[in-house]
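Exercise (ungraded).
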Amino acid sequence: MTVPRQRTPVIIDCDPGHDDALAIALALARPELDVLGITTVGGNATLANTTRNALRILALLGRPDVPVAAGSPDPLVRPIETATEVHGTSGLDGADLPEPVSAPSPEGALEFLRATLDTSPVPVTLIPVGPLTNIARLLRVYPGIASKIGAISLMGGGMVHGNWTPAAEFNIWVDPEAARIVFRSGLPITMHGLDVTHKALFGYPEIERLDAVGTRVGRVFADLMRFFVKYHVDHYGVADTPIHDAVAVAHVALPGVVTTQPYAVDVAIDGIARGMTIVDRRPMLGITPNVDVALDIDRATFADLVVGAVASYR
Amino acid sequence: MSAGFNVEAWGPVHAIPTYHKASSGQRSAPFGTVEHPIPLIIDSDPGLDDALAIGLAAASPEIRLLAVTTVGGNADVTRCTENALRLLHVFGRDDVPVAEGAAGALLGSVVRATEVHGESGIGSTVLPPAPNAASPEGAVALIARLLEASPEPVAIAPIGPLSNVALLLRLYPRLTTKISHICLMGGSIGEGNTTASAEFNIIADPEAADVVFRSGVPITMIGLDVTHQALLDRAAARELRELGTASGRIAAELTDYALDRNLEWSGAATTAIHDAVAIAHLLVPDLVAVAPYHVAVDTTQGPARGRTVCDGLPYRLNRDGRVPNADVGIVIDRERFTRLLVDAFARLP
């Protein structure tokens, strides 16, 4: 893979989160990406915890220079629902992470996003891997800034199935109204839903590889994954655990590693299917697609990418 | 389960993530035998595949067909009623009463599938007139009367929108104990067909479907997940035609009409005989593999309206305080299904 002449500027919007942590590690390790900042949102855990977790990950990775801005504690319309049963009360249980060595930007995510997009000479790719609250807020508060968003590579949704509910994937479930705003925005969107993330799996063999890296970073990520995998064993009876959020990063860093298809996608915001991403794949209707839906990734390629990223930190 | 099942092939419409599969379970639906035929009422909107379903029931000694009631769906209810009468006449079953039911959904909307089934509901086929007329009492009253009079509980196979069945459950709640099972065609675990998320029979009357799935009556949901495996092709149509009977010729014509539509729309060389699967499940104990799910219906006006949201994951059901309320069809042996249909039509005039 050749390094492009110009690195792709990206902002990661996240709610770390075990898989978010790997997404951040992957993004900061890839020479193709220029990470302009990390914005946080309430989701997997409370905003206070997800922000603190982002700072702890950056401390671990030796990258406290990366700006962090805290975004919305609550979804656009609804009260927050966290996934502490998946990620622990801290949002990042299971490993001995360092304390933060940097502080979040005082301006907050909304202003950070606006200013960063505004001053960027080229359009910026947003990588939202939590609830879409911050992105929807940005689009509604500063509609003019949309022209500075080059693309959105998001983790969320699923073609037919959810995980948090039978219909809804967690990120969309937490803020379906925000998701609808983003999906209907007309911006170029790639949706990395459960269809692809359930092919980006870490099980015990991948944890062994993280252990074998032999560094503190390797050990911390191995511990994080042991915690994450245990949840999946206990609740679903399978050790193979999707590393959802890192897929959205992999797609931007290495175009082509994720296979996509253009489809029409909308979001259910109420009722029993609330938070469901409805993907219309019926070919005979000639419906205009609004989203590239990610369908496939090679497990071994993905594991090499992520383990390689973890191993790149000294 | 007998040989021929391939549970790994489950998910023909869309690959279901591994841990979302419920374990294949024991069927709860009763089934008929020649010695003890199952008493059955078919509620239908014929309909190409409905016609084959009615023919299958009419020809099978394992079923005691008490009535065919009609509902607006694939075509206008008056067309559906006329089709039911004429089909039963062709099949030599003028003894089976027909009664007309709801023209549209509980809340008044009228959804049709004439682009699939033709304006008449049965493609371009012209059936000879029937000597009988529909029973004047109407579908819901006829079903109620038959349930009341039956010494044993009766199975209902709703293979159209669920408007009549919902009205029955609401108007005659005391008769629910006289229903042994509702084996319905509708819904899907995976994608829909009328919309991306909803199957036709459910989106035609989501509120009625909601009433049925909440009723507590034992239900088998024969949805698109399994019916998209119950396929006939040109060879099967030829076999039906070569039976040399009126019933065989009509079944072949209807199948060919459906095959033509499918070819035109999607290039597929097969057609799903959705409704006949619901009848087949009541005839053959081990043809359809089922799994227990909690099924809830989206009754919003949003993009998932009419979707059957199916949950089979024990952890999540426990968290949400839900228990399975339906067996959902997941796999069928296509070859056995084809044989069952052709053999049944071989017994018809």
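Further reading is listed at the end of the chapter. For now, observe: Residues 8-311 of chain A form a domain with the Inosine-uridine Nucleoside N-ribohydrolase; Chain A fold (CATH 3.90.245.10). DSSP finds twelve helices and eleven strands in chain A.
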